[in-house]
Structures are given as C-alpha cells and as structure tokens.
Amino acid sequence: MIGVPKDCDPVITVHGLRNAFGEQVIHDGVDLTVCRGEILGVVGGSGTGKSVLMRSIIGLQKPESGEIEVLGENMIDRDEDEAKNIRRRWGILFQNGALFSTLTVAENVEVPIREYFPYIKQPLLDEIASYKIAMSGLPPDAGPKFPSELSGGMIKRAGLARALALDPELLFLDEPTAGLDPIAAAGFDELIRSLQKKLDLTVFLITHDLDTLYAICDRVAVLADKKVIAVGTIPQLLALDHPWIQEYFNGPRGRAAADTAQEHAETLGSIEA
Amino acid sequence: MLQRKISRSLSQEMERDPANGDGDGATYRMAGSITIARAGTTAREIDAEPDPLTIDLSGVTRMDTVGAWLVYRTVRDRHAKVVGASAEAKSLLEQVAEADKPVRVHPEESAGFTRVLRELGEWVAEAGETLLGLLGFFGATLIGFANLLRRPKRFRVNAVVQRFDVVGVRALGIIGLMSFLIGIVIAQQGAVQLAQFGAEVYTINLIGRITVRELGTLMTAIMVAGRSGSAFAAQIGTMKITEEIDAMRTIGVSPVEALVIPRLMATVIMMPLLAFWAMLLALLGGGIFVWLSLGIPPLTYIQRLQEVIPITDLWIGLIKAPVFGFIIALAGCFQGMLVEGNSEEVGSRTTTAVVQSIFLVIVLDAVFAVFFSSIGWK
Fold this sequence. Notes:
The complex is a heterodimer of chains A (273) and B (378).
Chain A: E1 10-21, E2 24-35, E3 39-44, H1 50-57, E4 65-70, E5 73-74, H2 80-87, E6 90-93, H3 105-116, H4 122-135, H5 152-163, E7 170-174, H6 182-199, E8 202-206, H7 210-216, E9 219-224, E10 227-232, H8 234-238, H9 243-250, H10 252-272
Helix pairs in contact in A: 3-4, 3-5, 4-5, 6-7, 7-10, 9-10
Chain B: H1 2-15, H2 18-21, E1 26-34, H3 39-48, E2 53-63, H4 65-78, E3 81-83, H5 87-98, H6 112-150, H7 157-168, H8 172-195, H9 203-241, H10 244-251, H11 255-294, H12 298-308, H13 311-338, H14 343-374
Parallel strand pairs in B: 1-2, 2-3
Helix pairs in contact in B: 1-5, 3-4, 4-5, 6-11, 7-11, 8-9, 8-11, 9-11, 9-12, 9-13, 9-14, 11-13, 13-14
C-alpha cells in the first residue's frame, strides 16, 4: 500500500467503506483518497466492485458502513437539497452512455443546465450545448441526432458532453473506452487528457484498458480482496510484490501496453530533441 | 477559417494595454466569479451596453466555460475589446473559440403543409410495408409448417406444451373472472330494459345468445391479445436485441420453427378452449343473477338456455376462436421479429402488437357476423 502524495488536496475521501449484497460482501474496509487535479484510475478483476465503489461515492448505492466525503461534504445520509449542491459540481459518464433515448444529443446536454439554471434562455442554452458538443469532439451534425442513431464512440462522446454540461470540477468515468476500437479508444484517452488539463478537472476513472492506464492516469488504485490493496503510480505498483498486480501489469497484454507507452514517450522525446 | 481569424483578433485584443482600450466607448467591468450561475444576468448586462464595448476582466476571480463563452461571443459578434484577462481566462477564451463550430442543435423542420404531406406519405408507406411484411411473415410460417410436416421429428413438443401452460392454463383465472362479471352485467342491464315491457324472462335469451355467439370469444381474444400477444412481442423482441435470434440462425435453427410455430399452435389450440370456458362462466354469472334477482331457479334457467340457443351459435363462437388466436399470435410474433436496435423499440412494438391484433380481431369478427348471417345461421 503506497500512501497519499504529500501535497494532496483531497477531493474524494473514502474511509472504511463496506458494501454487501445479502451474504455477498463486495467491499470490506475500502480506503481511498483522490487528489485535486489528478486522473485516478481504478482497476480490479471482474466482480471486485469497481462500479459499486463508484456508485457508492456518487450516492447511488447506500453502503453498509464507512465514510465518504466528496468535495469536502459528507455523502452518507444527506438530504436531497444538500446533495443537489454537490451533484452540480460533478459530471458522470456511465458505461453505456446512459443518454436519454427520447432526447436528441443537444437536448441531452441541455438537461442538467435546465435543471439547475431554469432561467437561462433557449438561444444561450443552444449555444452552450453547441460548444460543449464541439469540445467533446462530436461532428457538427450530431446535435439533432437521437442516441439510437449514434455509434458506440459517439455515444461516449455525447455522454461526456452531458457530463461536462455544468463545468464540473470532478468527473467520473466508468470504463470510457470499453467497446471502442483501439483508434477510437486512443482518441478518447487524448480527449480526456486534454479536457482535464484545460478545464482543470479531477477525474475518477474505472477502466480495464491498460493503454488508458499508461497513457493518461496519474495514479492507479487496485481493488482486490474486497479492499484497495494499493494506490500509486504504475512504477510504484510494479515494485510491489502482490501476485494480482504482477500478473495484471506483467502479463502479455500489460507488457504490450507498457511497450507502446514507452515507444510513444521515446518518439515524443526524439521529436522534442 | 473565420473562427481562426476571430480567435487571432481575440488574442490580439486581449494583449492590448487596458489604458489604451479605455479611450472610446463603454467599458463593462466584470468582477467576482463569472460562471453559469450568473449566465443570465451577465448576458443581459452585456447586451445592454452600447457599442463600441470594452470588457474589463481584471476583477474576475473565477471563470468557467459559460462565462468565457459570453465574453467570446461578444468579441465575435460585436468586435468588443477584452482587457485585463488573467492567464486562465485567456486559456478558457481560446478553448471556447476553438470549440466554436457550426454545430446544429435542432433538426431541420419543413413548413407546415409540406410536413403534413410528408408525414401522411410516410404513414401510408409504413402501413403498406407493415401489411406486406405481415403477409410475408404469414408465408414464412406456412413454409415452416410445411417443413415440419415433412420432418415431423423436428416438431418441438415440449415448447408447445409449455406454451399451453402459459397461454391457456394460467389465463383461466382472469378470463373466468372477467366472463363471470360480464355475464352478471348483461343480465342486470337486460333485466332492467326488458322489465319495461314485462319481458324479464327474455333476459335468458339475451345472456345465452350474446355470450355464446359473440362476447365469449371476443372478450377472450382481447384478453389473450393483451396477455399473450404482448408477451410474444416482448419475448421475441428482447431475443432480437440480445442477438439470440441471430445466434439461432447461425447454428441452423430456424427461428420460425423454434419460436413462432410453438406460440402459434399453442394460441390456436388454447383459444377455443378458453372461449368455451369464458362462455360457461358468463352463463354461470348470468344464471346466478337471474336466480337471485328475478327468482328463476337454476334448473329452469338451464332448460330455457337449451331451448333458445341454437347449436349453430356455439359453432360460430368456436369456429372464430382459433382464427382469432392465429391472428393474435401472428401479430405478436411479427412485431417481435421487427424489433431492431434499442430496448425502447421493444416497448413500442409490444404496444403495436396488441393494438394491431385487437383491431384485426374486431374487423374479422364483423366479417364473420355478416358471413354467418348470410349462410342462414341466425
């Protein structure tokens, strides 16, 4: 277990989280801190409760016990009005986009704005929606389309545009590159990285994609044995002697991703030199 | 191209010294946090300022993309000057300038009359296609039946028997209750009206003939359409979405043989049985009412029923039942097979299946009524 960086300004703090569905215990004593301005990747085998952890943090899953603090506010047993104040400060991209299927892409982006700022007039609302759509890298004709007319990659981008609608400080991404082809996935990674830098976002990212981990994550948290067994940079994690971590990062896929990242860095280095 | 020019002029204007910018026109000073929370007010205030305008951002402590957008569009549309922008504000302004692309937000809408015409045309074309599709589907099931007749070993007995249970046995309760109540209602309403002529005894004729000839079968068909027709559409539609049907085809199992024919056969066989059950329960309900309310004892009621109901009435009711069952199952399976894309369509196709089958059942019922009268079964 590698600790929290010294200069950390915590945005999410999870302490002693316990989640269980009936007899089946998912989490038992999860501790995690996400610092401002970082991209934290969460990895773990299937069924280790990555999504459940995210759902607990954003308040969709009531934990059995434990403390969760987001943006300095306690998240457990809050009343609806207070929770709303935090909800407008985060954006969430669900695994399958979760776009409202009866609304167009532009209307989807406008939903959160309408909800929190009902007095903003339609023309300005349309302008905001249009630049959010462009920022998420969607083509100009995507605005009036319905989710059923979009490809998988476009759905993710549209979901991202909706997540960014209120200029959040904190962004949750649940497997953003799952189901995308490698080129689209790399493009999406780059988009997240550049938006994170430009808009000064803190990103909580669940992923299975080793390329994503190497390409954009500042730190990686590993979920196993119902706990977060380690958090740190990838080199820090590689130095640990945990069998799952070793197999994950040093398996054939892990090594391939590391090589790609290495090559990428070298190419960049030689161009700059 | 235009965007790039604007973005360049924006950065030039931002670099200008605040003292020089103050020379002509109004200056709008922004202070504090310029975010989405103040978007409405800020937009109104900027609009109220006269041209040429200078926007002073030196007092801004926090800005988000919406604030940056409001400043950017003033620069773009009114050639306003921006002074005193901090490094973060400049970077935000550049980003929204970069994201300013001609994105369409609303679908193109044509004028009223042409739109009505277009929608009418689309509707007609769609109705035609549905009818043609239903005919094609009917043909496919006939071919499926023919294949089964040639190779009877491929007939899925288990699937059919399982459908018997779902479509028939489990519907007994609700169809029985419904028919029983309808029997009471007919008896009660009939008795009230016939009492005006002193002809209460004819209530029995009314109950007997209307339930056996018409309502028993018709109400059962409507109930089966709502219960089983919708279930067929939803089940098959869901299987389409999860690609189960594609998997079947690639393995070499015909979805018509495996899914459609068992459902069709179960409905065709169960409908007359359910209709007969419905007739019995309606007669029972009516009988209890006339016994308690008009004082006609059950034995007299049964004797009277035998006298007034011609056997042809029963044939009419029972001949219609399997035809209705066939239509209901066909429409349900057909709509299920039409599902494509998302789960929302399962819902809309299920609704269409029920509406279509009830409509077709009533149309056919009218055809049957005319037909049987004209062959002398009155």
